[in-house]
Amino acid sequence: MDAGHCLSLALAREANLRGDTELVIVEGLSLASGQLEDVAPDALVIPPLAQPISADPAAVTAHAEAVEACLEHCQHSEVPLIWCVSDQLYEDGAETPIDEHVVPAPRDESLRRLIVTGNLIRERYPRHLIVRLGPLFALAGADAWLTELLESLQSGQEVRAAEDIIFCPTSADAAALALIGMLQQQGCGANAWGAYHLAGTEPVSPYTFASVVRTQLATRLEGLGKRAELGDLKALNHHHDQPLRRVLNCRRVLEAFGVHQKPWRLELGRMLDTWCQAYQVEEEA
Predict the structure, then answer these.
(1) How far apart are CA 204 and CA 136, in angstroms?
(2) Which residues cross the membrane (predicted)?
């Protein structure tokens, strides 16, 4: 679902590299009557709504309703439902890494609407995966955090980022690879349905992540002989008593499917190499 989402594009790239996986992409989040029967997929994957904490309440409600409509289609067609959700549903975080069995209990009304959807899935349809992700970063697609960051830095804009929130940035490519691996095992009879956490290793603040991006980008551009006047960073603080930690414990996905979390620094370096190669080609053209 949601063809333009950065996770959908990552799934498409990964599927194109494999001979055992075919991806059929739907433009939005709605299905026509009988569409699942016609396609007969092994699973229906719904990418996460990014930044639900700051999203318009109407957008959050629309997303929840669309997921619930997809649930009905999946039940009718007996197709497994894979719903990816943002770690922001853990609104207040936790001092220790958050285990999969911990159901989020946010105070925000919009976030609670998403919890209602999750509870509905758990109650009505055993063949589901609820996959909680850290903030996704990618080079293309909607909600591709890294693209927005690179564009802001390159254009000289000031980048404002919190330094008192701790989370695990998650590569969209790594998440796509893990999801396909999980679904392949489910198709082979793993029968390991339920909630799982997928996130990168090394918890970090948005400010530190942006700082690493800026430093590595400057280094690469200098290596290409390009003088870069990148935008500055400004640290924001919202939690003055102690940092808000939103770190996902990804132990269950390792135990059930053997999925290891990829270090975000390695994924970031790979993506920046790709971005700089494209930048150089564009400059030469």
Answers:
(1) 14
(2) none
Token reading at 7: 């996770």
Q: Which residues constitute the domain of residue 33?
A: 6-284
In sign, the C-alpha dihedral spanning 277, 278, 283, 285 is: positive
Other beta carbons within 10 Å of 202: 14
In degrees and rounded to multiples of 5, residue 165 shows phi and psi of -120, 130
Q: Is 153 within 8 Å of 159 (Cβ atoms)?
A: yes
Quick check: is 1 in a domain?
no
- In SS3 terms, 26-45 reads as CCCCCCCCCHHHHHCCCCEE
Residue 274, exposed/middle/buried by CB under 10 A (0-12, 13-18, 19+)?
A: exposed
Yes or no: say if 86 and 145 are a contact pair by the CB < 8 Å rule.
no
Could you report the per-residue pLDDT of 84-142, keeping only the tens digit for each? 999 999 998 999 999 999 999 999 999 999 999 999 999 999 999 999 999 999 999 98
Query: Hey, how many other C-beta atoms are within 10 angstroms of the C-beta on 113?
Result: 17
What is the arithmetic mean of pLDDT over 20-43?
91
Match 């956490």 to its residue by tokens.
197
